[in-house]
């Protein structure tokens, strides 16, 4: 009689079991993160990296409970370099999810490769109008905000305040153009000048001389990172702050800029979908954890990056780790079954959020700390201006 | 276009021109006397910017930062000279281009290793953070005035050095005819070293001064190198006077491109188109000028060589 | 047969077989990598022709690569779909650009040639940046893949092996062309100009015309390489024409061997290969490359190929007097 416990059958059984467990523990889910560590957007990139690392740590290197591997690369803010890095991630590392870039020109450059390879791109910052409108794609999730919305918020405020003229300036790249378009959409006064400077430009002498010559009531600028820090400093240095009100976006009014500029920023208004004093539980946990880990307050870059990782976590949990099932993965991502730090939101037809936008002003707290205070909610459950150009349902 | 706007933009152009002069003066001396094509000059500029920003943040004194930057870069230049440039004097220009390109690569990574890949925030000294009223209604940032003053001081100093001192005479002799100078007993090797260190000091000063105005980041040397080479070619190799005139011209062309051309174009083009074309026009004008000079006066506007 | 005779054929066979072998070794990603190296080999070979054989130190060659790439973009944008048409167009346009630019820069010599070619490359760079229609500084994504025709585009291959073979074929053709050219009377005249221009002029050779012909041929091939690069990346941006890219090309030629037949391809392979190796090992991969470059300048100034065993010394051409010589 054959002994069931004979050596060959034991061996076979052992092999089968180990094969099964190794198949389960097989490939971790690979996520590509292309970050701006160097280059013109390095300040935002640094925040993004810190927040993502925090989220990854809190999730114990897992997404949805399944082991995950996060591959990071530096894009240096260059669409060219980013494309090469992303192509490598797709072909060599075989990523299943992607996030990370800070500027919109990089997002537009790497999008096509990712969409062709069916890798969902959950943005941690840029919300280019192209992806909200005619070029919308089921594999792109504008999780953060659509570029124009911040400016629509402040443009509305400027109109309400009765400013007659405004000088507007942004760098000459897709986000810059989006932001100024958004401002013009809601600002009913006269735009005295619409100027596009160079990406990465830090010397604004020429532009500020023009401002002095035109004497506008308000100056609206979108100059993320170091660009904005230098602009504000030079604006104050040239004595223009006496006559012209400065309005901007969170890209130049958040904690990172405050740390670099300080007092000259008091009274600066901006519009955003997130502020660190939003009262929901997810946000409070995020801010507390971020402060514990990095000893500073997070910026919106960090908040959005943190959300991106959480969004991936929720989606992977919903498809039970089966990221190869693309339709299911897309459906799970669109359901956005997680607690976002900005509070409740849902996706519009073009995969961009329908959410509230707040007006904030830079002020001093009781203990002398300079930070943003939320003062109003000009836009509620706001849909972006491009959703009807998108043919997705 | 108001007079104050015009004056303000002109001052900006002069400021940029002076900074280019600091770099080009060093380059033209090195090229003129030692016949060495030094692409790594931009890396010396970058090192100056980094050291100045670093020391300024640590000590709180901008002046100490500038002095430290010049000192450190002089030491760096000395090391480079002894280790590499001594052997490059005898080689052809292509070899010099390649070796100094190698230095650029090494310098970029060394800086990245020390200070990280993210750009460094360099700030102007707090005392100079506000404007100065030059004329009624014309407020000009005081830091930029200081840069102008520094540029003028260096230009005057170089002029005196080159034209009214013995060392300067030796430098000029070497620039106009090196062999003859050697035959006449000039200690060519020492003059070479002096010239190289002087050029490095000027580059470091330019870097320290420009740090607060531009991004202190890896690769900043490569960005400023090309305009400096353009100035070098237009002005004439080996000629400080040429470098000065050419630097002013290039500074003005850049300003016209950045400030006045957009104003003119805005009248009939959309803002995005204006911002696409304006830098292109400024850049094209500079290089077209250089191409013209090369075509008709290949030795430059003020050639030092006979 | 000497090593130098059959080595290129062996390389060709190995390269041709690579896309078939790579998937078995899990090296799919490197099919694209080798393809990119081949494109740079072509660009380097074109530079070697004027630098090594013609003695023209051109620090602006990346400009022609860019012209080729943007020509492809313009054609693609206008609706052209055939890869061969686009590549041919790029070749012609880049050659024409080289002709126009050559009219000015070839009046200069030595360091002035270096500077003027640099100047024109920068002008091309600024023109590209100002072209909003083709993305400007943000770059241009090729929306549609250029089609190879002959039913090759329908082949379901992950890393596009047919395109790889097309590049290999073109590279082979280009190398054959250059080898022919350097061995012809044209090539010898060119080398004569490199060695002693005054003598050639005195002997009645049309020096300017010969140099123009070489410059235009070189520029055209560089343009072809640019178009292939654009097809490979499906993306073009002005940074392709930055002066540091031109410097990289010169580095490749020098590493491989200035004026040596396979200097371009060997140099490109070594430089790009080392770049990849260093990238895997460290984030600071510029450092070893820079040190290597400096070492080569001092230790093997005529390139790595010149370090090969003395046995082949007889077969190697006379060492080229340093290009861009010391004459003022």
Reconstruct the topology from this structure.
The complex is a heterotrimer of chains A (393), B (306) and C (328).
Chain A: H1 7-24, E1 29-35, H2 42-58, E2 62-63, E3 66-74, H3 79-93, E4 97-99, H4 104-116, E5 121-122, H5 129-132, E6 140-141, H6 147-161, E7 165-171, H7 174-186, E8 190-197, H8 205-214, E9 218-221, H9 226-237, E10 245-248, H10 255-261, E11 269-272, H11 281-294, H12 300-318, H13 326-335, E12 346-347, E13 353-364, E14 370-382
Chain B: H1 3-34, H2 41-59, H3 62-88, H4 93-115, E1 131-135, E2 138-141, H5 142-164, H6 166-176, H7 178-183, H8 188-210, H9 220-235, H10 240-265, H11 271-296
Antiparallel strand pairs in B: 1-2
Chain C: H1 3-25, H2 29-53, H3 61-77, H4 83-105, H5 110-130, E1 140-141, H6 161-183, H7 185-195, H8 197-202, H9 207-233, E2 235-236, H10 243-256, H11 263-281, H12 286-299
Antiparallel strand pairs in C: 1-2
Helix pairs in contact in C: 1-6, 2-6, 2-9, 2-10, 2-11, 3-4, 3-5, 3-9, 4-9, 6-7, 7-9, 10-11
Task: Describe what this molecule looks like in 3D.
- The complex is a heterotrimer of chains A (393), B (306) and C (328).
- Chain A is an alpha/beta fold.
- Chain A has 13 helices and 14 strands.
- Chain A has 2 domains: 189 residues, Rossmann fold; 156 residues, Response regulator (Rossmann fold, 3-Layer(aba) Sandwich).
- In chain A, helix 2 crosses helix 12, helix 3 runs parallel beside helix 4 and helix 12 packs across helix 13.
- About 2% of the residues of chain A have low confidence.
- Chain B has one domain: ABC transporter involved in vitamin B12 uptake, BtuC (Orthogonal Bundle), CATH 1.10.3470.
- In chain B, 76% of the residues lie in helices and 3% in strands.
- By secondary structure, chain C is mainly alpha-helical.
- Chain C has a single domain, classed as ABC transporter involved in vitamin B12 uptake, BtuC (Orthogonal Bundle).
- In chain C, 68% of the residues lie in helices and 1% in strands.
- Chain C is built from 12 helices and 2 strands; from the N terminus they run αααααβααααβααα.
- A two-stranded antiparallel ribbon of chain C has the order 1-2.
- In chain C, helix 2 packs parallel to helix 6, helix 3 packs across helix 9 and helix 7 packs across helix 9.
- In chain C, 50% of the residues are buried.
- Classes of the chains: A alpha/beta (393), B mainly alpha (306), C mainly alpha (328).
- Chains B and C meet through helix 4, helix 9 and helix 11 of B and helix 5, helix 10 and helix 12 of C.
